[in-house]
Structures are given as structure tokens and as C-alpha cells.
Amino acid sequence: MKLTTAFLALLTTATPILAFETENIGMIEASFDAGTIAQPTVLARDGDKASATAFMFLSGVSAALSIAGYSTDNARLSVEVDFMTEKPGPKTAPLDMTISYAPRGGAQRWTSEDAPSAPAVTFTTLEANDKEGRAVGTFAAELCLAEDYEGGGDPGNCRMIEGRFDTRFFVER
């Protein structure tokens, strides 16, 4: 299955008017700013094209796992973890992690980039074969407000987030 960045961008910014056939493949949930976020991860189909909001990109020597919730109101909660191995497991130390939440979609978001403390992601399950896998775990981070994609968050305007995920994901090379 070829997961394209353009189709994922379309999916995460699509309005309810666009008709996608979606299949829930998991869930990502969090407590943030005195509220609760609960979003499914989905496999979306638009004709012959398919894209998942949870996928692992394998480059030959590394792996990048992206788990993003889907919401018809464009809100987006995501956990991204990079590894220096193509076969990470639940105990593999991550190279990099980013947690972000865009309550209204778009470029303004809360991000762990440039936050005063590093995010934490813990896996109880992380397994993959050639086509798909499963990730189960928890995350916690200090998220700081970022006005656009050009820079990280403002370390003077941060809030804590804690959450969990349990999702299938699809493998892309």
C-alpha cells in the first residue's frame, strides 16, 4: 500500500463535504488543557487511493512511526517517533519524538518542539511485518504554542498533555 503525503494532508485537512470511505484502525486519546481528546486513527479510501493516519516509513536503516488522529472538524493529535533501526520494538530507544495537537487544524498548533522538557513515549507493543503493524503505548509532553510550521513552540506558553494510543499502522518504504 502506497501512503502518500499529499493524500494524508488532504485527509487531515478535509472538510466533512469530501466523502472518504474510512475504516477505524485504532485510537489516540489525551488529556490536554482541562479537556479530553479522543480521535480514531483511520484507513481512508478515495476510489483506488488509500491512506492511513497511522503508518511507519522504513528507509533501509531507520524507521519513522506517525500516529495521527482523524477528526471531521480538522483537529489533529499526533505522535511521531523516529528510530535508528528498521525493526524497532517496544524497548528500542527512540532517536527523536514529537507530540503535537492542532485543535482547529491548520498551522497553529501546540507542539513539543522547542519545549522546556523532552516528550516521553513508551510502547507496550510495537511490532510490524512487511505490510502492517501494531503500536500500543502512552505519551506525555509539554506542548508549546506555535503560530506556524516555520518554527517550534513558544517556551513561554506551554501546557502538559498525557495520553495513550492503540492502533494498527501500515508500512511504507
The spatial strand order of the largest sheet comes to 4-5-6-7-8-10-11
Number of E-type strands:
11
What pattern of helices and strands is seen along the backbone? Answer: HEEEEEEEEEEE
Q: What is the overall shape? A: globular
Helical/strand content category: mainly beta
What low-confidence regions span 5 or more consecutive residues with pLDDT below 50? 1-17
The largest sheet, given as strand count, sense and whether it forms a barrel, is: 7 strands, mixed, barrel
Strand content: over 45%
What share of the residues lie within helices? under 10%
Question: What is the CA-based Rg, rounded?
Answer: 15 Å
Intertermini distance: 10 Å
Overall pLDDT confidence:
89
Number of helical runs? 1
